[in-house]
Automatic annotation (TrEMBL):
Keywords: Methyltransferase, Transferase. Residues 77-166 form the Methyltransferase domain. SUPFAM superfamilies: S-adenosyl-L-methionine-dependent methyltransferases. The lineage of its organism: Bacteria, Bacillati, Actinomycetota, Actinomycetes, Cryptosporangiales. One of its GO terms (molecular function) is methyltransferase activity. The keyword Transferase applies. GO terms for biological process: methylation. This is Methyltransferase domain-containing protein. Gene3D superfamilies: Vaccinia Virus protein VP39. The keyword Protease does not apply. It comes from Cryptosporangium aurantiacum.
Amino acid sequence: MRIQLSPAGPVDGYARSVFSSQGPSARELCVQALSSVEHGYDLLAPKFDYTPYRTADVVLDTTAEALAGLGPFTDGLDVCCGTGAGTQVLTTLCRGRITGVDFSANMLAQARAANPDALWVRADARALPFAERFDLAVSFGALGHFLPSERPALFEGVYRALRPGGLFAFPIEAPPPLTDSWYWQTLGFDLVMRVRNTVWRPPFVMYYRTSRLPAIRADLTSAGFSVTADALTGAGRYRDGSPHRLLVLARKP
């Protein structure tokens, strides 16, 4: 479910303007922001790939490069697949069937139209309907849509979905330096979202600062994974030289 209401981050940037002729209007974004996560992205789906919220190709490409030597992989799963951009990573690495899962019917419709050869499944990622079917699972830009209390169910479902020895891989944003503007943008965005969800229903869950590596590592380890993390140096660096993103690698024994 690669669905981000928030700015796409320092790598993705705003090269594709949200307010382009093909992207959503300011009014459409406001309607989405006041909807639930599922309904909001059902509304946004036809124009999602024309916004900067789609995971940037540089992130997809560097992730694929980092995973290339960790296989072989047969069947692949894109968790929270959105419109299916992550499929290009799986098709590069996997020799078998590609499956995408998301809870937005309209996002899945866009994914299916772009890649009819893959299997697209509508389901809640907190209750994945798979058991030992995949060798590689990936996810892009989705963790901010899960509250910390919801992550264990997500990770336990991915663990069940993987065959023994399977790998769950996903990039996360590395904490920006205090001196970087992105630090203050993410802080401000999360505060605004907390206020919005306090005074407006239904809630729209999207937070940047609840998915830091120590907490993610702890939840993955509790689910049974062996966890490492590498810098995605090809996806850009902050001015102090630290990477924009880390690649989390969770292996099922």
